[in-house]
Structures are given as C-alpha cells and as structure tokens.
Amino acid sequence: MQNRSLVYLAFIILVLGGGLLIGANNIPDGWYASLAKPAFNPPNWVFAPVWSILYLIIGVVGARTWLSFRRTMAMRLWFAQLVFNFAWSPAFFGLHDPAAALIVVIALVVSVAGFIAASWRQDRTAALLFLPYLAWTLFASALNIAILALN
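^ thats the sequence. predicted structure below, dont judge the formating
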C-alpha cells in the first residue's frame, strides 16, 4: 500500500510541479496583453485554478495507469499528452508563436482523446477522469485558433 501511495505522490508532484514550473517561466506578458482575444476568452485568473485541478487529475490518472497498465498504449499516450501539455506554454508565451502553439495543442487533444480511447476498456475510471481534460484542451484549442485568426 505504501508503494502505491508513493507512486501517486510521485506522479502528482511530476505533473503539478512541472506544470507550475513551466507556468512560472512562461507568464503572459505585454505581448499577450496586446493580442486581440475572442469574446469567450476567460479572465486570466481562471487558468491557474483550472490547470491546477486538471494537473492533479492528470497525476492521479498517470499513477493509476502506471500501477496497472504500465506497458500499454494508454501509458505511452499518457506520457505523450504530458509532453505536449508542457510544450504549449513555451510555444505560445515563450516564443510568442500562436501557430506553433496550435500544432502543439492539436497534438495534445489527439493524445488526450487517444488515451481515453485506449483506456476505455482497461480502466474506465481513468478514461472518464480525462473527459474534463479533453473538454478543456478542446476549449484551449478554440481559444488558440481564435487568437491566431484575430491577430
């Protein structure tokens, strides 16, 4: 039991810690403030709590998958989504490149949806836990597309 708890803790620290570190190093700046944004763009304060909750869920799902289905396509897709997730902020905010960020977020959506599909039969709970993440990444894609179109 203790080993399982350590796995969960490690995955949560990896995801939440990595997300916070990347966020702290890719803070929206004057460039972002100057961009035209769509009417459905939420206030900036919404993003940190939403991502924190999602990162907690992503960590839990990663640990579940690691403990039970380590050598599966679902685990590979879980790691892929994390790479794309962590790459989006540096592409958008760091490089000031919404087009490159759009490519990254589309890959993120595909990997999240792929994880859900790959997990559906083996761990329905993990797949269902990723549904809000899929919804948010689809929303983020729409924002990214709108910002690209408006600028």
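Residues 2-150 form a domain with the Ferritin fold (CATH 1.20.1260.100).
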